[in-house]
Fold each of these.
Amino acid sequence: MSGIQARLNAISAVINYKPSHAPLNYHDTKPTDIFGANVFSDKVMKERLPKPVYKSLKKTIELGEKLDPSISDVVANTMKDWAIEKGATHFTHVFYPLTGMTAEKHDAFLVPDGKGGAIAEFSGKLLIQGEPDASSFPSGGLRSTFEARGYTAWDVTSPAYILENPNGTFLCIPTAFLSWTGEALDKKTPLLRSNQALNKQAKRVLKLFGVETKLPVTSFAGAEQEYFLIDRNFVFSRPDLLIAGRTLFGAKSAKGQEFEDQYFGVVPRRVLSFMMEAERELFKLGVPVKTRHNEVAPSQFEIAPIFEIGNLATDHNQMIMTTLRSVAKRYGMVCLLHEKPFAGINGSGKHLNYSLGNADLGSLYDPGDTPHDNAQFLVFCAAAIRALHKYGAMLRATVATASNDHRLGANEAPPAIMSMYLGEQLTDVFEQIKKGKVNNSKSKGIMNIGVDTLPPLPMDPGDRNRTSPFAFTGNRFEFRAVGSAQSIAGSLVALNTMMSESLDYIATELEKATKGDSKKLNAAVQTVLQKIIKEHDAIVFNGDGYSDAWHKEAAKRGLPNLKTTPDALPVLTTKPVIDLFTKYGVLSEAELRSREEIYLEMYAKTLKTEAALMVRMASTIIFPAAMRYQSELAAACANLKAIGKDFKMSTLEDITAKLRSMQTSVAKLEKLLSVEGKNSHAEAKHLCDKVLPAMNELRSFADALEVVVADDLWSLPSYQEMLFIR
Ligand code: ADP
Ligand code: MG
C-alpha cells in the first residue's frame, strides 16, 4: 500500500479497534491466587523437595553458600515434574548477553525411549549448565568464533519460572553466561560478583558497629520503568519507528506536553486494559509491580515494582520489558522502550532506586529519627558521597548509549554531570561534620497542608529534586540517568563496586583507629567522616541541575561532563576503573575492554542504521511527496499564467528551496556515512561529531516540508496522529 492511503487506513484501524480476545476473567482469579503461580518459588520447593535438599538449596539461595552439586538431580527432577504439570514441554536457560536483551534457547524435555515412545527427562547436569552456541553474541574480542563455546550456569538465587503461550508453556531457568575460559559474556555474572564484594565490605563496617547479620548484605533495587504506547498501525506506516524504535522525521505537533494535562491523568481505556493484563502476567511471574500512571508526555506511561534484591530486581525488570512488549501487541499497540521516540517531548528513563541492606537490617540508608545520632547511617552515606565523587564518570559511562544520548542533558533528564542531591537536612549535618561539630540536625519539618481534617504529613527529609542524577530520597538513592531500554545491571554493578571500594576504605580506617576497642569508634567515625566530606563534598549539589550556572560551577569543581557516548565509554578502561574492578574481582581488564568495544560497536551500528534509514526515507517517501506538491503548484502557476494572471507563488519558491536543501543534505549524509573510522572509537566519534549533526540537518529540512506540503500527499503518520489518536 502506498502513500496517504496507508496513513488513512492506520487511522481508521485505530478508531475502529476492537479487542481480539475476551476480557480477563478477573472475578474468578484473584491476584492473591495468581501471584507467583508460575514461579518455582520457596513455597513450591518447600512442598516438593525432600527436606535435606530443600534446606541445602535454601542455604545457597539465602546465605550465598556454595551449591551442593549432589542435590542437583533431585532439584532438576522436581522442577521438571512441576513444569510438566503446568503444561511445559521445553526448558530454556535464560541469559542476559551484553546487548542488554534477554536470550533463550529452548530444549524439549522429551527424549525417545528406544521403544517407539518418548519419556520426559531433565538431569541436574542440564539444570546446572548449558552450552548455547555463543558465536553470535557480542564478546568484544573475549572469544574468537572458532572458540564459539559459551556456557550458561544456573543462578540458584533467581527462581525458575514458567512462561505461557496460548499453545503451551516452557520452563525458564535464569543463568549466567560465560566463555569457556570463565570470562563473563553477560550482565548477570558481574552483578553477582559485585554483590559478593559489597557483602564483604559492608559486613566489615557493620561489624565495627557491633551489627552481626547472618544474611548477606546486598543491593536493593527498584526500577521505575517509563514507556510509550503507540498504535501498531502507525508503526507499520513508519519505517523509522519499526526499525529504529524512534521517529527520525516528524514535525512537532501543535500540541505537545505543554498543557501538563497528561501526568497522572486518567489512563485511556485501551491502555488500562493493557496495563491490567501486563500486570497480571507479571504477577504470575512473581514480579511485584505496584504503581501505574500516565507520564508527562502524551502516550507515555510508567510501571514500577516494589524494590527487591538487586539481582532479582534486574531479572524482573527484564521480564517487565519483555511483558510490556508482548502484551501491547495483544491490544493492537507497540510498546516503545526507546529513550527518545519523539523529538520535542519528554523521553523515557528508568529511575534506579538503590540502597543496601537485607531482610534483617532493612535499608542501611534509613536515617532513623535524628540522623546525626545515627553514625552508621552517616558512614554509609559518606561512602556513597566518596564513591560518586571518585567514580561518577564511570557510573555515567554505564548509561551511555546512542539512544540515551538524546535524553541526558536535554533538560528533561538529569545532566550528564554526576552530582548528588542530599537535601537540606543531610547537607546541614555534613556541613557541621566538616566544621567539626555535630549538634543538632534540622529536625524533620511537618508539612502544613491547611486542611484541618487531614493529618499532618511528615516532610520527606530528602525532598524531591528532579534535576539531580543521584538523589537521596529518604531511605535510598535514586539514580535517574538509566535509559528506559537499558538493563539496570550495568549501573548496579558500578554502584555495588564503587560502594565496595569506599566501604573498604572506611572499614580499614576505622579498624586502624580503633584496633578492636569499640570505645574509640565514635571518635574514629568523626575523623573519617570529616576527612571524606572535606575531600569529596564537591559532588554534593542541591540546586537546579539544568541551569547554566551549575554547568559552570561543576566545571570549576572539576566534575566531568561527558556529554556523549563516545566521550563516556573510554572511562571504562582508564586505570582507576580497571584497578577498581580488578581489585574486587568484578571485571577483569579484558572483560572491561570487551565491554567498551561492544558498546562502542553498538553505538556505531545504531547510528549507521538510523542514518541509512533516513537517507532511504528522505529519498523514497519525503522527496516524492514534496515533488508532487511542487509540480501541482507549478501547474497551478502555469495555468494562471495561461489565463493572463501573473501570480507570484511564494510557496512554490519555498518548497523548491527546501527540496534543494534536502537533496544536498542527503548527499552530504551519504558521503559522511561512507567514511570508515580506523578503530571503533574513531568510528563512534565520527558518527557522533559528523554524522549525527548531518542527520539533524536533514531532518530539519524534511520537517519543514511536512508543515507546508499538502496533507493529502504526506504518507507518514504525523506526530499529532500518533500521539493523540488512541
Ligand atoms: P517516585 O516516582 O515517587 O520516585 P515510585 O513509587 O514510582 O516513586 O518508585 C519508587 C521506587 O523505589 C519503587 O520501586 C520502590 O519500591 C523503590 N524503593 C523504595 N524504598 C527503597 C529502598 N530502600 N531501596 C531501593 N528501592 C526502594
Ligand atoms: Mg515515579
Amino acid sequence: MTTYTLPALPYSADALEPVMDARTVTLHHDFHHKAYVDGANAAQKELAAARESGDFKLIEHWTKKLAFHASGHALHTLFWENLAPVGKGGAPSAQLTEAVNASFGSVDKLKAQFSAVAKAVEGNGWALLFYSRADKSLFIAGVENHQKAAHWNAVPLLALDVWEHAYYLKYQNKRADFVTEFWNIVNWDDVSAKFAAASK
Ligand code: MN
C-alpha cells in the first residue's frame, strides 16, 4: 500500500517574505498541505480494505478522494520546491530558455500567458507549466481544484497555487497582485533542473 509523507519546507517559513508572509506559509504547509497527505493516506487505507474484503461498493468515492488528495500533495510538493527567497531564484538555464523561446517566443511572453491563466482560473486551482515528452515542448494549463482538466503524458515544472488560502491573509481579494509578486520568488534553478530531468 502506498503511503505519503509531508515533506519539510526547503526553507524557513519567513524565507519568502514579503511576497508570502510566514503565517500564510505555515498555515498552508502545516495544515492545508498536511490535510492532502492525510487524505491520500486515508483513501489508500480504504482502498486496501476494499481489496481485502472484495467489497468495492464505495470504489468511486475513494478513487475520487485519492485523485483529489494525492494530486493536492504532489502539486504542493512541487510548489514549495519551485520557490526561493527574493533574489535567490537564479535564472532559467540556457536549455530551458531555448525551449521557452521555441514554445512561447520569450520568457516574458511565458510569464504573461502563465499570469493570465492564473488570474483566470475559476474558483480554486493552479496555473502550471508542463513539459510534454510526446511533443518535446512546453505548455501552460489552468487546473481546477488539483486534478480537474489535467493533462497526461506531461511533466509539471512550475506551479502557482491560486487557492484563496495561498494568498488571502496578505492579498485578500487581489489575486492578480499575488500572481504579479509570485515571479519574485520563483526558483528558476529548480525549474531548470526539473526541465533538464524531464527532457533528457
Ligand atoms: Mn494550497
